[in-house]
Design goal:
The structure is a single chain. Residues 1-19 and 21-26 have low confidence and may be disordered. The protein is an all-alpha fold. It has helices spanning 21-27, 31-67, 72-77, 89-96, 100-131, 137-146, 156-165, 172-197, 200-208, 213-224, 226-241, 245-250, 260-271, 277-308.
Length: 312
């Protein structure tokens, strides 16, 4: 049995070699300060850009929220000043006297039907275009996608006469149908890309087990596409809730049937320069709050859906 003898010479493994990156780092000490300075400059630039972007995005919203608690005289005298108190009467007047509650209910009724039906029809069309090869499939796909490049303003006149001939003007179900048709191109484009990223082996296994095409779609592929459905559903909700051009042209009947965007525009135009700005900003915040709440609840699903559709 032998014992290791202590030695004063360094071991060969601890000695730097020519190919070791540690040896390069230690042999060029001047590179370390340069890299640290470069990283610090990049961090300052990126953080400054993010702070500027946050101010530009959240600043108008916070100013509108602050203004909604101020009386009209205070808004005109000191538009950037803080409110002297929480004037909740602006919110109650907007809800009751300006009929914001009625307009909100109309928008909610239309959106609660238009968004799910858009998701259902768009997903079915996208699934067929993504998973089945048939003659003319690419023509159908690009016809749908080309709808995104068609300005809605150019379709207003023929759409108005079509709705009039079908007796769908100034009706909720007519507006729901128009919203669905308006959102179909983007929904099909988004969901077709998403369905193509899903693995085919799962659908093939279900088909071998005897599942029909409709059962594979509703019980296998559609649950797998849940992140994409949530993402495009949020975008459709934002588009339908904030839609102004289509209801302005196709829903000019009874004032009680106006949607929220029409009501806000009517509230502003009715009073002109004598507008109750406190009540007006309170109505604007009521219109924006549902969007903020929906996005705050589903923001993680939106991000997951966008990233899941980017990679396979």
């Amino acid at each position: 049995m032998t014992t290791a003898e202590p030695t004063d010479t360094p071991r060969a493994a601890e000695a730097p070699t020519a190919g070791d990156p540690k040896s390069k780092k230690s042999s060029s000490p001047l590179l370390k300060p340069e890299r640290s300075i470069e990283g610090a400059v990049l961090n300052v630039f990126s953080h400054g850009f993010l702070i500027l972007w946050a101010v530009l995005a959240a600043g108008p919203l916070l100013w509108a929220l602050m203004t909604a608690f101020k009386p009209s005289a205070s808004i005109l005298e000191s538009p950037w000043g803080l409110p002297d108190g929480l004037h909740w009467e602006n919110w109650s007047n907007a809800w009751s006297k300006a009929n914001i509650g009625r307009y909100t209910l109309n928008s909610f009724v239309i959106v609660i039907f238009s968004v799910p039906l858009t998701m259902l029809f768009g997903s079915m069309a996208a699934y067929v275009l993504a998973r089945f090869d048939f003659r003319g499939s690419r023509i159908v796909y690009f016809t749908f996608v080309g709808g995104m490049a068609f300005p809605v303003v150019m379709a207003l006149v023929p759409l108005f006469f079509v709705m009039k001939n079908l007796s769908l003007l100034d009706t909720r179900h007519g507006l729901i149908m128009v919203y669905i048709a308006y959102s179909m191109p983007f929904t099909i484009f988004f969901m077709t890309t998403f369905f193509r990223t899903l693995p085919s082996s799962v659908a093939e296994a279900a088909e071998i087990d005897g599942a029909s095409h409709s059962r594979i779609f509703f019980q296998v592929m559609l649950p797998m596409a849940k992140p994409g459905l949530i993402s495009v559903g949020i975008f459709n909700f934002l588009g339908h809730w904030n839609q102004y051009v289509l209801p302005f042209a196709l829903n000019q009947g009874d004032e009680d049937d106006y949607v929220l965007t029409q009501g806000i525009g009517f509230l502003f135009a009715q009073a002109g320069y004598r507008a109750d700005y406190g009540r007006l900003f309170a109505g604007l915040m009521m219109a924006a709050l549902p969007i903020l709440i929906v996005y705050a609840i589903f923001q993680r699903q939106v991000q997951a859906g966008l990233t899941a559709g980017a990679v396979k």
